[in-house]
Design brief:
The chain is mostly helical and 150 residues long. 79% of the residues lie in helices and 0% in strands. The chain has helices at residues 2-17, 21-42, 48-75, 82-110, 113-135. It contains 5 helices and no strands. It has one domain (2-135).
Length: 150
């Protein structure tokens, strides 16, 4: 489900968003919202097929986030520091992911999976909604605000 979902999400971005910055910004927020909803739903189902379907849909949303995240990071970072920004992004993303696995394991041993799933889904939902509230209404194109040093 993981690989198929991420590939399908990347295909969706390539097919529907393309190089339209406005769409990329909006789809990024929507992907976080749908990821949150499908993750929360996945943790509530007791029937395997429904849980697997929610996992697939959640990973399609994640597959939207991955290329859009990279695109927006590239378009908003000065080229003179882009490599360092990508290195920092990659290392913090990986580190936070490992930390979240450990914390989720601890939380699941203390609380029930449905409760932990709702909390994690709510955090992702908050990210998506706050993104849309902050950036979803803007219509400007990326303006690499940074200029290289002279």
């Amino acid at each position: 489900m993981d690989g198929i979902g991420v590939l399908a999400g990347a295909y969706v971005v390539n097919h529907f968003v393309r190089k339209n910055h406005r769409r990329a910004v909006v789809w990024y927020g929507i992907a976080y919202v749908t990821q949150a909803l499908f993750f929360g739903a996945m943790t509530q189902f007791t029937i395997f097929a429904w849980g697997a379907l929610m996992l697939l849909l959640m990973r399609i949303s994640s597959g939207d986030i991955i290329p859009l995240d990279t695109y927006m990071l590239q378009t908003s970072t000065d080229s003179t520091v882009r490599g360092r920004v990508f290195a920092l992004h990659g290392s913090t993303y990986g580190g936070v992911m490992q930390l979240s696995y450990a914390l989720m394991g601890l939380a699941v041993t203390r609380f029930r999976i449905p409760a932990v799933g709702i909390v994690i889904g709510a955090m992702s939902l908050l990210c998506g909604v706050s993104w849309l509230m902050q950036f979803g209404h803007r219509s400007e194109q990326p303006s690499n605000k940074f200029s290289p040093p002279e």
